[in-house]
Amino acid sequence: MILSEIKKKLSKNFLISGIETAELDARLILKEILSFDDKELIINENYHIPKGFIKEIFAIEKRRLKGEPISKIFKKRDFYKSTFIISNDVLDPRPETELIVEIANNFIKKNGVKNILDLGTGSGCILLSVLKENKMINGLGIDLSKEAINIAQKNSKKLQLDKQSNFLISNWMEAINFKFDIVVSNPPYIASKDIKKLSNNVKNFDPLLSLDGGEDGLNCYRAIVKDLKRVINKNAIIIIEIGYNQSKFVEEIFKKNDFKLIKKYNDINGLDRVLTFQ
């Protein structure tokens, strides 16, 4: 079987099953199994794929058709400017979350920043992306999940950022007794009743701990803001991701705790996605 035929077959089967990224997923599978880049995938369209590889490709196809994301199958995901190790123990990094990294980078350029705290770090993708762009600062990532912390530490070593970063198992700021110039977070914000409405590739393969924000989806914001003043410096900025319909509620939670909204940021769909506070 030649490459172009198997690529067409994969794309068609994915499309029939309702996978919106059918052609992209087919390319990603072939690139990974054959160790090809995009250019090699094009120029080798008549390449006869060895039987062993074909068997492996169809085994991956079967998993994808059952809803398992490509990123979870290959245990890696591109985010910002790096590739991160991931697993079923951490949230799959989303492109919209890259907005937090950009906002943090801009703040660091204009202010004297020494350190950054990432609450609910997961794979460490937010913290490590910021540290990679800003070699003069240090960062701490905390997470309640031991498995998530292990993944974040692996990513730190992979990206050669282990001298700039530390990771700690903690229930929000409980184990922290230090002050930071920037706090970033993409906390769980899905209302418990809405978990079952999520797509299969999310609810079946992302950890519930990273999704469930309690009855109204706002529990984590309440928990964070309650202890936040203790761990921030005077002019620190808080950069936090929210659900598309949560802006006014999160703003009110922070306002009640004497935090001022600095700016709202929209994602590529024009929805409120990130809020900054001081």
Describe this structure in words.
The protein is of the alpha/beta class. It has two domains: 3-66; 80-277, Rossmann fold (3-Layer(aba) Sandwich). It has eleven helices and nine strands. Strands 5-4-3-6-7-9-8 form a seven-stranded mixed β-sheet. A two-stranded antiparallel ribbon has the order 1-2.
Give a quick summary of the entry.
The protein is an alpha/beta fold.
Rounded Rg: 20 Å
Low-pLDDT ranges = none
Query: How many β-strands, per DSSP?
Result: 9
- What average pLDDT do the residues reach? 94
Q: Terminal Cα separation, in Å?
A: 60 Å
Helix content: 40-55%
CATH topology of the largest domain: Rossmann fold
Shape: elongated
Q: What's the total helix number?
A: 11
Biggest β-sheet: count, sense, barrel? 7 strands, mixed
| Named CATH architecture of the largest domain | 3-Layer(aba) Sandwich
CATH classification class of the largest domain: Alpha Beta
Summing up helix and strand content along with how strands pair, one would put the structural category as alpha/beta
According to CATH, the homologous superfamily of the largest domain is Vaccinia Virus protein VP39
Please state how the strands of the largest beta sheet are arranged side by side. Answer: 5-4-3-6-7-9-8
How many independent structural domains? 2
What pattern of helices and strands is seen along the backbone?
A: HHHHHEEHEHEHEEHHEHEE
What is the quaternary state of this protein? Answer: single chain
